[in-house]
Amino acid sequence: MATQRLWNSLSAQGMLHNKLRNLVQFTQKRHRVKTKWAATQPKLSATNLALQNFDAIYSMELGELWPSVRVSLLSERKYGALVNNFSCADTVTDLQSLGCVDFIASSSTGADQHTVNEGTCRDLTIASISPNVKCLVFPKGDISRFKPATLDSSGFLRYYLMDAASVLPVLALNVQKEESVLDLCAAPGGKTLALFQTQAARFIWANDLSGSRMSRLQRTLNSCLPHDLLSEDKLYITSFDGREWHELGENAFDKVLVDVPCTTDRHSLVEEDNNIFSRSRTKEKRNLPLCQTQLLLAGLQAVRKGGEVVYSTCTLSQLQNQCVVEQAVSLANQELGITAEIIDLQPFTTLFKDTFHFAPDLNVGVMVLPHLVANFGPIYFCKLRRLS
Ligand SMILES: C[S@@+](CC[C@H](N)C(=O)[O-])C[C@H]1O[C@@H](n2cnc3c(N)ncnc32)[C@H](O)[C@@H]1O
Prior knowledge:
The chain is an alpha/beta fold. It has helices at 2-12, 16-26, 37-40, 46-61, 66-73, 91-96, 103-113, 118-128, 167-173, 190-197, 211-224, 265-270, 282-286, 288-302, 322-336, 346-351, and strands at residues 80-83, 101-102, 135-137, 159-162, 180-183, 203-207, 235-238, 253-259, 303-313, 340-343, 357-358, 366-369, 379-386. The strands form 2 sheets. Strands 5, 6, 7, 8, 9, 10, 11, 12 and 13 form a 9-stranded mixed beta sheet that branches.
């Protein structure tokens, strides 16, 4: 009681701080313990540093959603099976017999029956969702795992396992017949493969700075696509710095996918190897928003007037998502004389709301939030149209 009274009275008089300071000053030097941070503090692992960073930032950015997203990020992720249309096996039927559903086909069918926003949903279904891309998932709440993909009788992989939400940026790009497509940061190649599944592009140009990751992309495409699609006039593979793309040519493509390097939130929480939060990569991590902005600017330069760009990441970070898009649109206008408008993807979220949990109220772009019953994402994407 006496301590409580003293505490109250010191606080009330605003004296607590001074008293504590005096106490410290009167402590004799030889009794003081100097903390040797460098030597005594245990070094935090990169995964722990990532969690600390996310707790500090996402609890502010996502507010009351963060605890649920946090536990989902730390739990086993869910995959989707991107069906390889170039395989002769009846993969869809086989996966359906296990209880899987094609989330693209089932959303499109559902949208046809919608009465609210009927016009928007139907337009989107017909015009924007490639009927050829098939991605099967186990329904909400079902945490069954896919078996590793096998080869069909012709030696092609029957499906490719990836985060089902990663297919959304490809669907949002909405590749139409005979369009030219640049995949600026393509490796290891999941989205390039999904772009091929649209069976629409005149050619796809897959680029990535990392030569070794491009070898992985090449292997994936070799195991899924017939030789004629791997030929020179259908697929171009390069390993340039995407930020310098304007040196190769501008206004050249109908569609550009800019799937940038980011803090890869899910990976950073579970994998020590190659973790962007390791101390040796601090500078690289700090430079990410700049690099992302430069890549998006390069994408806006590479696309023709009237063409479209999709920017995507697998982080929840506003600094790497909305801020980068806003910054790039403004810089493109001021420095390059390029105007770009942001396309409303809200109908898109309506279409796929039964499969994914989308972040509410995003002003720029859309984001799939990890959720325990649909543990996909995080995936952020934003679609832009170049006007001039
Ligand atoms: C998120 S990953 C891309 C994933 C890929 N789109 C997929 O779906 O499999 C980002 C990629 O950007 C590449 N990258 C990093 N900096 C780059 C740059 N300046 N130019 C081009 N690619 C870059 C990385 O090597 C990495 O493969």
